[in-house]
């Protein structure tokens, strides 16, 4: 007896709808994602005509002061903007090494008192290599 075999049906999976769903999900995640810079202060540096680039950026400490007078030490925003909390943060970051260079990056619209407070904290802790960060001014038009 000879039996006939049924021809096998080829099973195709339609991937078009799956690809559409994946692209819609991708689009959804791209549109809804927000990028925040919560650990950094926005500082518009003042301009200076003379100056020199800083060396040893990896060893230096950086105090950033926003236009509102908010302090940040090495991109860590301090909860309080007073002398005591600034000194505590500098001591923690320096690990007792006051020979490290310390740069102060203050916004151009920062109150002078905030800059003096940062310099006072550095002086009380014994930092001797102090620099003020600026951007190079545009040359005057002839």
> Per CATH, what is the topology of the domain at 47-136?
Nucleotidyltransferase, domain 5
The CATH architecture of the domain at 47-136 is 2-Layer Sandwich
Which sequence of SSEs, written as H and E, runs from N to C?
HEEEEHEHEE
Q: Quickly name the level 1 CATH class of the domain at 47-136.
A: Alpha Beta
Strand order in the largest sheet = 4-3-2-5-6
Secondary structure layout:
Elements: H1 16-32, E1 47-48, E2 61-65, E3 71-73, E4 76-77, H2 83-94, E5 102-106, H3 112-125, E6 130-132, E7 135-136
Parallel strand pairs: 1-7, 2-5, 5-6
Antiparallel strand pairs: 2-3, 3-4
List key phrases describing it.
142 residues, alpha/beta, Nucleotidyltransferase, domain 5, five-stranded mixed β-sheet, two-stranded parallel sheet, 3 helices, 30% helix, ExbD/TolR family protein, cell membrane, ExbD, protein transport, membrane
Model description:
- The protein is α/β, with parallel strands linked by helices and 142 residues long.
- Strand 5 (102-106), helix 3 (112-125) and strand 6 (130-132) form a beta-alpha-beta unit.
- The protein has a domain at 47-136: 2-Layer Sandwich (Nucleotidyltransferase, domain 5).
- The mean pLDDT is 80.
- It has helices spanning 16-32, 83-94, 112-125, and strands at 47-48, 61-65, 71-73, 76-77, 102-106, 130-132, 135-136.
- Helix content is 30%, strand content 15%.
- The protein has three helices and seven strands.
């Amino acid at each position: 007896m000879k039996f006939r075999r049924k021809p096998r049906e080829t099973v195709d999976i339609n991937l078009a709808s799956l690809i559409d769903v994946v692209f819609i999900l991708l689009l959804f995640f791209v549109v809804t994602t927000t990028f925040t810079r919560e650990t950094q202060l926005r500082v518009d540096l003042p301009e200076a005509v003379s100056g020199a680039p800083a060396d040893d950026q990896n060893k230096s400490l950086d105090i950033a002061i926003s236009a509102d007078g908010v302090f940040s030490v090495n991109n860590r925003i301090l909860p309080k903007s007073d002398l005591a909390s600034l000194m505590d943060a500098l001591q923690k970051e320096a690990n007792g090494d006051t020979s490290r260079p310390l740069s102060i990056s203050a916004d151009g619209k920062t109150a002078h008192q905030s800059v003096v407070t940062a310099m006072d904290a550095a002086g009380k802790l014994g930092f001797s290599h102090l620099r003020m960060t600026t951007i190079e001014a545009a040359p005057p038009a002839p």
